[in-house]
Amino acid sequence: MSDGKKMTSSRRHHLKSLMLQIAANWIENEKKENEVAKAAYMAENCPTPELSGDQATLMEICKKLHAAIDKIDEARYDAEAKVQKSDKEIEDLKLKVVELAGVKKPALKKVRMSADAMLQALLGGKHKVTMDLRSNLKQVKKEVKEESSEAVGDWRKNIEDKADRKKMFETS
């Protein structure tokens, strides 16, 4: 179809109905082929038993049929066991492939969020937590040391006192 032309709805519906008719014919033919194949298989593998005769021959035919059914059941059971085993192996191999490939972590995105918003997101909306660290600090008052005015006063006295001590040590 070209870019400029569009199909009309009636044309589209007509083509759709034709396709559905063709598909229905194919399905019918497939069903008929399956029935013919089934009848051929049954005629080949399951001949009609001869039911004429006495009770002993009928009992023997029944035993043969039961033996055949048992063999078929064993084969079916073995086939199911093989399928289950292979399914389990496939699952194990899939898990190993996932483990070997590893889980790729997506690149983390930078998010601007305050500490209060982070805590609220982690703890939920019920808890009110503030991260104002300055309010949690203890307030320490600075003590101002006052120098004694006596020490600043007469410095000559201090020198004389120290000289007197020096003399005491020298004389002894």
Largest sheet: none
Distance between the termini: 129 Å
| Rg computed from alpha carbons, rounded to a whole number of angstroms | 52 Å
**SSE class:** mainly alpha
Task: Please work out how many helical segments DSSP would assign.
Answer: 6
Residue share in helices? 55-70%
Rough shape?
elongated
Question: What's the average pLDDT?
Answer: 82
- For the secondary structure, the number of strands is 0
Low-confidence stretches: none
Please state roughly what percent of the residues sit in beta strands, choosing from under 5%, 5-15%, 15-25%, 25-35%, 35-45% or over 45%.
Answer: under 5%
**Helix and strand element order:** HHHHHH
Keywords:
0% strand, 69% helix, 172 residues, single chain, mainly alpha, elongated, 6 helices
What does this structure look like?
- Helices cover 69% and strands 0% of the residues.
- With 172 residues, it is an all-alpha fold.
- The longest helix is centred in the middle third of the chain and has 47 residues, at 55-101.
- The relative contact order is 0.02.
Task: Produce a short descriptive summary.
This protein is an all-alpha fold. It contains six helices and no strands.
Topology:
Layout lengths: L8 H37 L9 H47 L13 H9 L9 H4 L12 H5 L1 H17 L1
